[in-house]
Amino acid sequence: MSKTEAGIAGLQTASLGDGIVGRINELAAISESPGHLTRIFLTEQHRAAAELILRWMRDAGMRAHLDAIGNVCGRYEGERPGLPCLMLGSHYDTVRDAGKWDGPLGLVTAIACVGDLNGRGKRLPFAIEVTGFADEEGIRFASTLLGSRAVAGTFDESVLGTKDRAGTSMRDALTTFGLDPEHIGAAARARRELHAYLELHIEQGPVLEQENLPVGVVTAISGATRLAVSMTGMAGHAGTVPMALRRDALAGAAECIVAIEEFCRTDRGGLVGTVGYINAMPGATNVIPGQVSFTIDMRAASDAHRKMAVADVVRRIEKIAKRRELALQIDVTHENRTVPCAPWLKAQVAEAIAAEGFRAFELPSGAGHDGMAMIDIADVAMVFVRCRGGISHHPDEYVESADADVGARVLLRVIENFRPRDKVG
Ligand code: GLV
Ligand code: MN
Ligand code: MN
User: Fold this and answer.
1) What is the CATH number of the domain that holds 270?
2) Ligand 1 within 6 A of 368 CB?
3) Are strands 194-202 and 85-91 parallel, antiparallel or unpaired?
4) 366-422 pLDDT per residue, tens
5) 415 plus 282 within the same structural domain
6) Are 39 and 136 in contact (CB under 8 A)?
7) Domain boundary at 336, 360, 388, which?
8) Ligand 2 centroid to 92 CA: how many Å?
9) CA–CA distance, 31 with 95 (Å, rounded to integer)
10) Overall domain count for the chain
């Protein structure tokens, strides 16, 4: 048995952390480009990762299958078959040039915990399900949380016509992958099937490191709005059109980007705004850019504040477009409200952290998570695991094996001591 397998085999034997790190590294090797981790929805890397995770789930004693949207779903029965489950999970898609922990940490840890129970032959008065969500980041089709929305039964079928940057529609990508776009509804689960949804995730920020703590209890997941902006001016010759006569779409977009940065920077309510993607057409050195598309991602501590800020940013962009005589289209591609974690579940996470000998420190999540969709069918809670330097969505993302181990111990404790909502006072 390899060291990795020994680590995964059980808490009784060795640190779960080493086994988890081994599997994180195995998954990180499945990437579109070697050395730059990129694993996108409905690609051959999605398929390879899904097969590996299905195998791990089966090795951990679960029945496992790929659902109608490409999520990996594992089920470990309770004391008798068919009981409602505690659902654990996280996503296994990545951003471009990603870190290897965002998503996979929660998934691999959940499988390790089930493997540990299975190794001891332990069954609980409820089932455990582990879901690896196929698309949380929303990199390919602009809509995020596609996997968890399908499970929550809130998948919006109108996004099936959305095209990726290569012009392939989501409908066609699903069909090529071997999934039936007409049957996404089959992935939906009912509220009565779930006691709760619990996700462990890398913190992706610097707070736990500052507090000198390996884990924390999440209070709420901040809402977010994503916009797709298109500005159209007039392409032309870079040598012949005088500056005063230009309608340069890229210069207009640049002014918008700086305005967004300025607006968010001077805000006092924790507002953050990011333009993470831009494309200028026709894209030649000696041609004035005639058309530009860019994205905006905006988040704030409260929904009301975010909504006001988005409206303000839209007004600023409209003003810039008008002054520069650029045609403008702004579409909302994603909107999620802030999701509070359930107090009765947070209390069980806090209890487990305290039992492991740590202060149960509470912190909010600025990043989005699958719980934002799962809230529609279950109460949600999250455990955060410390990362180094607060770095995430970057190849330098890093979690210590010892912290991954504490996270796994906390999760296992929560599972073994879990009381459904109707059993807590
Ligand atoms: C997901 O990582 C997000 O917060 O955008
Ligand atoms: Mn992410
Ligand atoms: Mn994530």
Assistant:
1) 3.30.70.360
2) yes
3) parallel
4) 999 999 999 999 999 999 999 999 999 999 999 999 999 999 999 999 999 999 999
5) no
6) no
7) 336
8) 10
9) 11
10) 2
Side-chain-side CA neighbours of residue 424 (13 Å) = 13
Where are the strands (E) in 77-153, listed by range?
85-91, 127-133
Q: Would you say 64 and 165 are in contact if contact means Cβ atoms under 8 Å apart?
A: no
Distance from residue 368's CA to the centre of ligand 3 (Å): 7
Cα distance between residue 113 and residue 420, in whole Å: 19
Q: Which residue's CA is minimally distant from atom 5 of ligand 1?
A: 368
Cβ–ligand 1 distance for 407 under 6 Å, the answer no
* 19-41 as b/e: b if 16+ CB within 10 A: bbbbbbebbbebbeeeeebbbbb
Q: Which atom of ligand 1 is nearest to the CA of 299?
A: 4
Q: Are 29 and 37 in contact, with CB atoms under 8 Å apart?
A: no
Q: Which residues contact 394 (CB under 8 A, 6 or more apart)?
A: 97, 98, 99
Distance CA 397, CA 202 (A): 9
Q: Which domain holds residue 68?
A: 3-222+339-423
Q: How far, in Å, is the centroid of ligand 2 from the Cα of 162?
A: 21
- In a mutational test of the pocket of ligand 1, which residue from 91, 393, 394, 397 has the highest number of ligand atoms less than 8 Å from its CB? 393
Q: State if residue 367 touches ligand 1 by the CB under 6 angstroms criterion.
A: yes
pLDDT, one tens digit per residue, over 167-186 is 999 999 999 999 999 999 99
Cis ω for the linkage preceding 34 (within 30 of 0): no
Q: How far is CA 106 from CA 62, 190, 385, in A?
A: 17, 23, 9
pTM for the full model?
A: 0.89
Residues 180 and 316 in one domain: no
Same domain for 38 and 154, yes or no, is: yes
Residue 106 backbone phi and psi in degrees, to 5 = -65, -35
Which pLDDT score, from 0 to 100, does residue 12 have?
Answer: 47
Helix (H, G, I), strand (E, B) or coil at 36: strand
Chain length of the chain:
425
Residue 187, Cβ density class (10 Å: 0-12 exposed, 13-18 middle, ≥19 buried): buried
pLDDT band per the 50, 70, 90 thresholds, residue 227: very high
Amino acid in position 209: E
- Report the C-alpha gap between 90 and 25 in whole angstroms: 17
- Collapsing DSSP to helix, strand or coil, 258 comes out as helix
